[in-house]
UniProtKB/TrEMBL annotation:
<comment type="similarity">
    <text>Belongs to the peptidase M28 family. M28A subfamily.</text>
</comment>
<protein>
    <submittedName>
        <fullName>Aminopeptidase</fullName>
    </submittedName>
</protein>
<keyword id="KW-0378">Hydrolase</keyword>
<keyword id="KW-0645">Protease</keyword>
<keyword id="KW-0031">Aminopeptidase</keyword>
<keyword id="KW-0479">Metal-binding</keyword>
<feature type="domain" description="Peptidase M28">
    <location>
        <begin position="66"/>
        <end position="277"/>
    </location>
</feature>
<dbReference type="InterPro" id="IPR041756">
    <property type="entry name" value="M28_SGAP-like"/>
</dbReference>
<keyword id="KW-0862">Zinc</keyword>
<dbReference type="InterPro" id="IPR007484">
    <property type="entry name" value="Peptidase_M28"/>
</dbReference>
<dbReference type="Pfam" id="PF04389">
    <property type="entry name" value="Peptidase_M28"/>
</dbReference>
<dbReference type="GO" id="GO:0004177">
    <property type="term" value="F:aminopeptidase activity"/>
</dbReference>
<dbReference type="InterPro" id="IPR045175">
    <property type="entry name" value="M28_fam"/>
</dbReference>
<keyword id="KW-0732">Signal</keyword>
Length: 284
């Protein structure tokens, strides 16, 4: 798998920041900065030869959009899907939440093409709308699929907040919690990938807090990584991960200060590298 360039990922974050700046400071559902974000990501994927489509839905009196991108080739009956939400809250530009996941899977997608990756499985990406309004876009997408189409999706990997400024390294818990992610194989693969880079991880019960939820509810194995949001980093966590104990993983979570300054480059790079290595292994 390629080593993903954090410089490239950060260039995509700068684009999201510019889009927010030009559109009232946010990229929220129903606001012009959201559709501008969709169109910009779509243009990058179209230029790289992906088959893209915009899936529209209605929520809260506004049209919402999911961007779906298929990498040409691979077994259409054996689909690996990666996704993250592209919308922000209205309060700010949403660069860590979730410019990071969005930009990282975009860069991984572009590197598939750049390296000429020819996976045996079919690979599809989703950028979800209206996550911040209650996981709306991803649910609309899953509900739009026939049961035959759903059953072709063998894996869904979700990335929501992967560059938190005071980062933790969390992997979605497959077993424990109210809504366990369900796939022990994906959990263990992600854990092993961090471990191979000498990065300690913790499991986290992400419950129903992001877009993996609709896939899980459809019986699709899901997994993901996360660097933390509003919760406070403990002394034990600061001892193993560095950063500041007694402070939130992301003090700018859902605030106007969630800008390009609100990013830990190391966490962003490590997660992007893990995303690529996981995709290369799972789709091989
Ligand atoms: N989905 C949450 C948000 O967008 C963030 C989150 C992701 C929280 C994963 C917990 C686990 O605000
Ligand atoms: Ca890298
Ligand atoms: Zn959020
Ligand atoms: Zn989020
Ligand atoms: Zn690296």
């Amino acid at each position: 798998a390629p080593d993903i360039s954090v410089t490239n990922v950060k260039a995509h974050l700068t684009q999201f920041q510019s889009i927010a700046n030009a559109n009232g400071g946010n990229r929220a559902h129903g606001r012009p900065g959201y559709l501008a974000s969709v169109n910009w990501v779509k243009s990058k994927l179209d230029a790289a030869g992906f088959t893209t489509r915009v899936h529209s839905f209605t929520y809260g009196g506004a049209t919402g959009y999911n961007l779906i991108a298929d990498y040409p080739g691979g077994d259409a009956n054996n689909v690996v899907m990666l996704g993250g939400h592209l919308d922000s809250v209205p309060a700010g530009p949403g660069i860590n939440d979730n410019g990071t996941g969005s930009a990282s899977i975009l860069e991984v997608a572009l590197q598939m093409k750049a390296t000429g990756f020819r996976p045996a499985k079919h690979v599809r990406f989703g950028w979800w709308g209206a996550e911040e309004r209650g996981l709306i876009g991803s649910a609309a997408y899953v509900n739009s699929l026939s049961s035959a189409e759903k059953s072709k999706i063998k894996t869904y990997l979700n990335f929501d907040m992967t560059g938190s400024p005071n980062p933790g390294y969390f992997v979605y818990d497959a077993v424990k919690g109210e809504f366990p992610a369900g796939s022990l194989a994906l959990q263990q693969r992600l854990e092993a990938d961090f471990k191979a880079r000498n990065i300690p991880t913790e499991l986290i019960d992400v419950g129903n807090r992001s877009d993996h939820r609709a896939f899980m509810a459809a019986g699709i194995p899901v997994g993901g990584t996360f660097t933390g949001a509003e919760k406070i980093k403990t002394a034990a966590q600061a001892a193993k991960w560095g950063g500041t104990a007694g402070q939130a993983f992301d003090r700018c979570y859902h605030r106007s200060c969630d800008t390009t300054s609100n990013i830990n480059d190391t966490a962003l790079d490590r997660n992007a590298d893990v995303i690529a290595s996981t995709l290369w292994a799972v789709a091989a």
